[in-house]
Amino acid sequence: MEIHKTDFLIIGSGIAGLSLALKLKDLGEVTILTKKRAFDTATALAQGGIACVQSEDNHFDLHIKDTLIAGDGLCKPEVVELVVKSAPERIKELIDWGVEFDRDPKNPQRFHLTLEGGHSRKRILHVGDYTGRAIERVLIERALHSPNILILENHLAVDLLLERNCSSKPCRVVGALVLDLIHSQVKIFVAEVIALCTGGAGKVYLYTSNPDTATGDGIALAYHAGVTIANMEFFQFHPTCLYHPKAKNFLISEALRGEGGILLNPEGKPFMHKYDPVRKELAPRDIVTRAIDMELKQSGGECVYLDITHLPSDYIKKRFPYIYETCLKFGIDITKDPIPVVPAAHYLCGGILTNIWGQTDIPNLFAIGECACTGLHGANRLASNSLLEALVFSHQAYLKIKEIYQDFKDNYNHLPKIKEPEVKEIKEEKIFISHNWDLIRKIMWDLVGIVRSIKMLEFAYKRIIFIKKEIESTWEGIYLDLDLMELKNITTVAELIVRSALSRKESRGTHYLLDFPEKSKEFERDTLIKG
């Protein structure tokens, strides 16, 4: 079995992993593992932009207040303050790396800022309507040109290796067991510090805006290593994904509503005034999503519509070129036709519990980005705070790693005795794997979705545990099949979400429970599950 030594091991190639790597490269060798292509990330799909205070009519206190309101009482104020006040410096860093944010056509010295749901001011920097793609391209290019950064595609981390004789806590993580999907072999990667930057878990739901890679791998790895997982019940559903039989996971950015887009019910009538009379379409995502869900259930319709046809045609094409061109491929001219949309699973607000430095329970194991629970988002993420969080916490992690990594220089000597694992091939028909994939995701969508009940959650839990046991007994160990290994991860994540949802007996943020429709006055700040 091959053993590879590196100073820093980063699992994931989105904005969190790449920005951390670009900082750590000056301290030592950095290896980035990604289970598919480096560009196959949620970052590359992000359309809206990055929230950052820039204009004279805006200030930090307003951004902090908007974030706290969206988080519905569960944000950690010190984390919110850190992220918001760090934003200008992190944006400057992106610009220095080569990201070119759109400028105001009337004043090119300033950025073009847009408005999104939950924001009281225009503060979203963007690159057209493909901000994430532009950022990902710049970061990957810089990483590829760095002699101290190695990116290995088609490498799936399947287990974290803890030091031998780890009877006292906290222990340390000394490496990872990795499946090389191209050469069909297991490798060991040893590192002083490991960072989980694996993104979200939207594929646990039947309908999601997430890429196919979003199977909660980092959360499953951390949980099985004994790390604390927090607030998994708070899964944010984006109100507007394109509704079309051939359009897979295509998000219709919040920025359209920020530019004046109006939501129409299946009868073609506006409805948001009934649910949030003041903010209407610009209410936080949890409110807009539940409103759409209610309208669809009342009408029996399959989708609602987002209408921006009242805006000038040329402006729409220039401001939203990616959305315009994509919708046109499906026969929808957004300058003339309302866009059919439905909610979809979008962002996990909970995840691997970290401190303000991105550290987990294990001192040399970090978690950054959507797989982490830092306390920024609380019960509901404010739009365009996610890319910002990844940038800020990759910097925080860098500062802490720079301080401590010398303490873990002898990780190789702490490797546990590892019997070379048997890597198996699927002998059964793969229909059994795809069936369980579909079953888990349908259970989660039908019973653990936008609106929940205790009865629905309990039924979902029984079904998921049954499927989990079936998977463990039928396909124990490591397999060459990526779908099967990801199935194991989404089953773990599904279980964690349902357990967390059952333990929170109130409705708050993205967690709406029919049995307890109000907020509790004696609520738990964090729902914790120890691995």
From TrEMBL:
Q: What is this enzyme's catalytic activity, as reactions?
A: L-aspartate + O2 = iminosuccinate + H2O2
What's a single GO CC term here? cytoplasm
User: Does the UniProt entry include the keyword Flavoprotein?
Assistant: yes
In which domain of life is the source organism classified? Bacteria
- One Pfam family name is Succ_DH_flav_C
Subcellular location(s) of the protein: Cytoplasm
Keyword presence, DNA damage: no
Entry's EC annotation: 1.4.3.16
Instruction: Tell me which cofactor or cofactors this protein depends on.
Output: FAD
Name the keywords, alphabetized. Answer: FAD, Flavoprotein, Oxidoreductase, Pyridine nucleotide biosynthesis
Question: Annotated pathway, please?
Answer: Cofactor biosynthesis; NAD(+) biosynthesis; iminoaspartate from L-aspartate (oxidase route): step 1/1
GO molecular function: any one?
Answer: L-aspartate oxidase activity
GO terms (BP aspect): 'de novo' NAD+ biosynthetic process from L-aspartate
Family that this chain belongs to: Belongs to the FAD-dependent oxidoreductase 2 family. NadB subfamily.
Q: Could you tell me what this protein does?
A: Catalyzes the oxidation of L-aspartate to iminoaspartate.
Protein name, as recorded: L-aspartate oxidase
Q: What is the lineage of its organism?
A: Bacteria, Pseudomonadati, Thermodesulfobacteriota, Thermodesulfobacteria, Thermodesulfobacteriales
